[in-house]
Write a structure and sequence with these properties.
heterodimer, A: about 90 residues, alpha+beta, Ubiquitin-like (UB roll), three-stranded antiparallel beta sheet, flat, B: about 250 residues, mainly alpha, Ferritin, 10 helices
């Protein structure tokens, strides 16, 4: 039966100032119902103050086949991490 | 009619509606709708619990919420018959949920200014919940009514089955002293707003207002439909088989 309703990806903002984070998906007949179903499934325990839904079919994802050329080249570029600065003694908690 | 009877009637409306709706758990047409209906039932049960406890306090005879929910017989329940009507098909359930929630919302909006502080507090919490329940009901009525030929037929059929019990919602059962004291309003004062809202949504959903005869009602006097006994048997059997049991 569930195959008759499209799938929606759900993003919840836990509180003001934070960004929406992907939490899972729901089935729903339209966008308005998707927001409501997401409310019932993903904010039952006060997890959020805002909900986004996106049709799962609209998401373009990278392919596992492309993993090597996508992600491996970054592996040997440690200079992209901000670990080469010397901090003065006086600066703490950074 | 005293304040105990008023609060108990309001509590029974919620308790029985919650129990009936909860029958959909693990049976709804979609998993997401299953959770939505359970969620609405839980809101409603929460309202019933506070009201039953409040009724027990007013009565002052030592009965708590559990005693009032589980140890009364059918004739002692004073909910409107609309609350107990069988789920039927999904269109019937949506029709009942929608009519019930719209009517309840107008009640509790009116009770936000009740001179009974507990009722006023329950009202503040309930109107937020009920707005959501009304929204859920209205969306389904529109979607099914203005959907396919089959969904339209089912939605209209559901409305036709439930509609005969609407008149009972507005018949007077509260004492004039309670109205004068500002504890409650007269049920009839809610009728115009409810019917206006229903007519609006029925029109949007391309449905028609049912032309069906009204049933006598009598829920407020403990007179119920045939299915009420079965509902109570299922709800109360555990508490009665094992008195005082805890876990």
């Amino acid at each position: 039966m569930s195959t008759s309703w499209p799938l929606w990806e759900v993003f919840i903002r836990p509180r003001r100032g934070l960004s929406h984070t992907h939490v899972g998906s729901v089935h729903a007949p339209d966008a308005a119902f998707a927001v409501r179903n997401a409310r019932d499934l993903y904010t039952r325990r006060n997890e959020g103050v805002s909900i986004w839904v996106v049709p799962s079919a609209q998401i373009t994802a990278s392919s596992p086949d492309e993993r090597d050329e996508f992600f491996d080249p970054a592996a040997d570029k440690v200079y992209r991490h901000p670990t080469f600065y010397e901090l003065p003694e006086e600066v703490r908690h950074l | 009619m005293n304040r105990f009877a008023l609060v108990l009637g309001l509590a029974d409306d919620a308790l029985i509606a919650a129990q009936r709706l909860a029958e959909w758990v693990a049976n709804a047409p979609e998993l997401e709708e299953d959770v939505a209906l359970a969620n609405i039932a839980l809101d409603t049960l929460g309202r019933a619990r506070v009201l039953l406890a409040h009724a027990g306090e007013i009565e002052g005879a030592g009965r708590n919420e559990d005693d009032l929910a589980m140890l009364r017989d059918e004739r002692e329940f004073t909910n409107v018959q609309l609350a107990e009507l069988e789920n039927g098909h999904f269109g019937t359930t949506i029709a009942r949920l929608w009519l019930y929630s719209t009517w309840q919302l107008t009640w509790w909006e009116a009770l936000t200014s009740s001179t009974d502080e507990t009722l006023a507090a329950v009202a503040q919490k309930s109107i937020k919940e009920l707005r959501y329940h009304v929204d859920h009901g209205e969306r389904w009525v529109r979607r099914l009514g203005d959907g396919t030929e089959v969904s339209h037929e089912r939605m209209q059929d559901g409305l036709d089955r439930v509609w005969p019990h609407v008149a009972e919602l507005f018949t007077n059962w509260v004492g004039t002293d309670l109205i004068e004291q500002g504890v409650t309003v007269a049920p009839a004062t809610l009728e115009a707003r409810c019917r206006e809202r229903w007519a609006h949504v029925i029109n949007e959903a391309t449905l028609s207002t049912p032309q069906v005869p009204t049933v006598p009602g009598g829920g407020r006097r403990g007179i119920h439909t045939e299915s009420m006994g079965y509902l109570l048997a299922e709800m109360q059997h555990m508490a009665r088989s094992h008195p005082g049991a805890t876990w």
